[in-house]
């Protein structure tokens, strides 16, 4: 029997999106890669969100979110702002320039800079999948914002994410583990098995040992 | 209130896959665009399949399938063979060249020509979404087959699908409706509201009136 190669997971294609929600008057958003149409009659869009994300609980409790589709004119700052910090620690909309977002009819902001479309979604079913909840949603509104092509996860990796320097070992000769997803680096001999990236919440399997 | 623009649906990004299954010793496969990872602990891959597809019933009844990830070296013939004919009418593996596929340990064929990875999946939950069933699956095996990049749906539209001639009207001056998904053309004044593409099963919303 052939040996399993989990790098196959990287062959699946994804878009990238800002998922926004509002609870008790407080808005928040995170980066997700899982918005797709899963049925046509009726139209259903599925969205999987990691339970560790603050936005997850907001969508679960309110049953509503907006999905802004990230386009190729997005800068790395958009990913840093919504993906590399948590709404538990900072109010992401407090310091976010007002020209970068607008409020949809459902009362939830959507992003207008570095995006080409947005959807207002109403959750019709939530499937508990362990680390994530899969929200099956009805789109209540959608529109096109620009003609710039959508970003795929592959495009983000090749064209938007800054190339990290190959540090390999630190000046003290320690080993560096780098998250393939967001670039977070951890210094130490062996990454613990239950390690979760503090930035993007991905597990040890998504880290690589950096060799100079 | 702004007007809804359903062209936003085309901004969502997808890969393309051959989904294969076996029932009562008979193998079949169809083209799908919906295989993504939806949870990491445990690892879960979701696959949405249109109920009109013969493969849908096979996966539903057997609880197993393989997903072969289509890569940029795939020819249009692969899409025609698995996407533009139904297993109800033809045995897709009867005349399919034997060098193009192999049998996985789960007894189901996977495609080795024009693909870069494959997954063997076991269905753990099936969510009925009307036109489609969303299968939540556990990968029981996966491996990488090549380093050629995966095809996205956008890549298929721009680089693999033959450009149809702009017929606009027929010699008799009739109007032509063309399926944006597979290129199927229908001649007549007005496409019926309940029209379903006989090739790719997409609804009227995915047809465009062709104007010369």
From TrEMBL, chains A, B:
Stretches assigned to the Rubredoxin-like domain: 174-210
Keywords: Oxidoreductase
Top-level taxon in the UniProt lineage: Bacteria
Gene Ontology MF: a single term: iron ion binding
InterPro entries: Flavin_Rdtase-like_dom, NADH-dep_flavin_reductase, Rubredoxin-like_dom, RUBY_RBDX, Split_barrel_FMN-bd
Cofactor section: Fe(3+)
Name of this protein: NADH-FMN oxidoreductase RutF, flavin reductase (DIM6/NTAB) family
Organism of derivation: Pseudobutyrivibrio xylanivorans DSM 14809
């Amino acid at each position: 029997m052939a040996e399993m190669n989990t790098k196959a997971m990287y062959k699946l294609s994804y878009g990238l999106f800002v998922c926004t929600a509002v609870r008790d008057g407080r808005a928040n958003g995170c980066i997700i890669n899982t918005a797709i149409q899963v049925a046509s009659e009726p139209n259903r869009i599925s969205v999987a969100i990691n339970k560790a994300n603050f936005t997850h609980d907001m969508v679960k409790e309110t049953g509503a979110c907006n999905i802004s589709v990230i386009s190729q004119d997005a800068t790395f700052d958009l990913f840093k702002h919504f993906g590399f910090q948590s709404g538990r620690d900072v109010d992401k909309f407090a310091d976010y320039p007002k020209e970068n977002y607008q409020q949809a009819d459902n009362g939830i902001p959507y992003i207008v800079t570095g995006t080409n479309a947005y959807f207002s979604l109403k959750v019709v079913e939530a499937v508990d999948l362990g680390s994530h909840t899969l929200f099956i949603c009805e789109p209540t509104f959608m529109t096109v914002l620009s003609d710039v092509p959508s970003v795929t996860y592959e495009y983000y990796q090749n064209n938007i994410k800054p190339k990290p320097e190959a540090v390999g070992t630190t000046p003290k000769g320690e080993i560096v583990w780098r998250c393939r997803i967001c670039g977070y680096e951890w210094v130490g001999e062996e990454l613990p098995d239950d390690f979760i990236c503090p930035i993007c919440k991905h597990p040890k399997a998504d880290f690589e040992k950096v060799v100079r």
